[in-house]
Amino acid sequence: MTFERAVVTGGAGFLGTHVCAELLRCGSHVVCVDDFRTSDAGNVRGLLDNPRFEMRVADVIEPFDVPGTVDLVLHLACPASPVDYLGMPVDTLRAGAFGTLHALELALRKNARVVVASTSEVYGDPLQHPQRETYWGNVNPIGPRSVYDEAKRFGEALTTAYRRERGVQAGIVRIFNTYGPGMRPDDGRMVPTFLRQALAGEPLTVHGTGDQTRSLCYVDDLVRGLLAMARSTEPGPVNLGNPEEVTVLEVAERVIAATGSRSAIRHVAPMADDPRRRCPDIGLATKRLGWWPEVSLRDGLRAMADRSARPLVD
Ligand code: NAD
After folding, report:
1. What residue ranges of the chain have pLDDT lower than 50?
2. Residue with CA at minimum distance from ligand 1 atom 21
3. How far is residue 304's CA from residue 259's CA, in Å, rounded to a whole number?
4. I need a surface site. Which of 114, 162, 175, 224 has the fewest CB within 10 A?
5. Would you identify the CATH topology of the domain 5-179+218-242+279-294?
6. Ligand 1 pocket member 21 (CB < 6 A)
7. Which atom of ligand 1 is nearest to the CA of 15?
């Protein structure tokens, strides 16, 4: 199924750029709505050559419209890396609340399918393992990270209300840590930080002991899952992530191996409310969307290291 005209909020960001490129490849017209607050206009430079790509610079916290027909809204706009959301806590909450409201209103006006990007962070520091969609989570509502976690939890509640009360064809995906080419080396997330440090020959900084776990999904797999969700009528929430669970220390070692770096590993202070374990149960995505990740961590890290010096869209 090809969408005729898709709106991607946050389309200039890491995931958004890959999603826009894939939608264009599938033949859709794509309208990217972004104010570049955590990205760069340079990210979409390669896409602007495509006559089916349209860039609208707008803040989704304010009401926005897209003239013409729209059959898909993908709502990705939200500061997503800790460096970004800790630096703009109020706007992160406003993006989760008003940004999601405006994306849902657009879908309502256009009678379009809408998929809202939520996060594994809604599970907080989970007491159930692996995390299944039926788990309600363990979130500190006033900790520093709460601005992101609670913004996403509110976004889920709002999306569900629009589906139930207003009949919007809305779906929620809970995205687990995703990595790949196009991430900002300084965005503070684990993989680009390790990669930047390894390529510069600096020590890789591991917070705490490093035995906390993460599950890392390669961006191509994630985009395939997101579009499978868009093409379905599933309400979600559906977990999208790679269930290959590794410790943070192992990730650091694998980045060193993938880059051939001689960097050492340095332990630094643990982060506040850092989850101990993170691993998706993807049974629902497999059953309802026929989706599962295909790229191993080793191959994904190698691909990212190989492409880190080149622009995303040539
Ligand atoms: P990103 O920071 O690279 O991209 C976010 C984009 O949204 C940026 O281009 C930014 O400029 C834009 N944006 C933010 N606030 C905006 C606003 N008010 N108005 C207009 N544009 C705005 O982050 P990403 O990794 O691409 O994440 C995309 C979405 O996926 C986010 O909603 C994030 O919460 C979710 N997500 C990502 C991951 C991951 O591992 N990458 C994991 C879980 C959830």
Report:
1. 309-314
2. 34
3. 10
4. 224
5. Rossmann fold (3.40.50)
6. no
7. 26
The two structure tokens encoding residue 3: 């969408």
CA distance 5 to 32: 11
How many Å apart are CA 24 and CA 8, to the nearest integer?
Answer: 12
With a 6 Å cutoff on the Cβ, whether 237 touches ligand 1 is: no
Could you tell me the residue ranges of all domains in the chain?
5-179+218-242+279-294
Is there a contact between 67 and 54 (Cβ–Cβ < 8 Å)?
A: no
179 is catalytic: no
Cis peptide before 237 (omega within 30 of 0): yes
For 150-188, the pLDDT digits (tens) are: 999 999 999 999 999 999 999 999 999 999 999 998 888
The model's pTM? 0.95
- Confidence at residue 307, expressed as pLDDT on a 0 to 100 scale: 79
Answer yes or no: is the C-beta of 34 below 6 A from any ligand 1 atom.
yes
Structural contact between residues 53 and 20, judged by C-beta atoms closer than 8 angstroms: yes
What does DSSP assign to residue 122?
Answer: G
Token pair 């033949």 in the structure block, residue: 27
Q: Mind listing the pLDDT tens digit for each residue in 55-69?
A: 999 999 999 999 999
- Out of 85, 123, 148, 218, the active site residue is 148
CB-ligand 1 contact for 99 (6 Å cutoff): yes
User: Alpha-carbon distance 75 to 58, whole Å?
Assistant: 13
